[in-house]
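Dear colleagues,

As part of the handover before I leave the project, I'm documenting each prediction I ran so the next person doesn't have to rerun anything. This entry is a single chain, and its sequence is reproduced below.
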Amino acid sequence: MADDTTPRKGRVGLYPGTFDPITNGHLDVIDRAARLLDKLVVGVAINTGKGPLFALEERVDLVKAEIEPIAHRHRMVIEVLPFESLLIDFARHVGAGMIVRGLRAVSDFDYEFQMAGMNYRMAPDIETVFLMASETHQFIASRLVKEVAKLGGDVSSFLPPTTLRHVMRRIKA
């Protein structure tokens, strides 16, 4: 049993997603998770089944660019890594004791509840923590942002500037 003089291991969290593209909603969850953790790993899933707009490497680069101000503001390490393994295996690989998931609406809850249950059964030592998206970001979904952009709609309020430029270039190509 550890006493009060034993240094506590830093709190490492994992925020997984496809981030295709990373949205202001994702950044909101990352910013809020950063306040709770000593280190955050943003895991960018390969997930080719979703037919991504950006290749894995491009998504990793965009996430890195967009989270830099958050890491600086919180004076912490936020690492961005690609993965294609089972989420629990990746969490163990990066030393995460917590998986961070963002909830936008009730419709997210059923899926996330099932995933949290499965993950807990496989790894009861890794907690899943849900962060509600702020009211200004609750409706933002990458899938919808891509659809609106492809149809010529204005998505500038949903995406950070660097990602917005890349999305618009990709859609016009």
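The domain at 12-172 is CATH 3.40.50.620 (Rossmann fold). The CA atoms of residues 104 and 139 lie 6 Å apart.

All the best with the project,
I.
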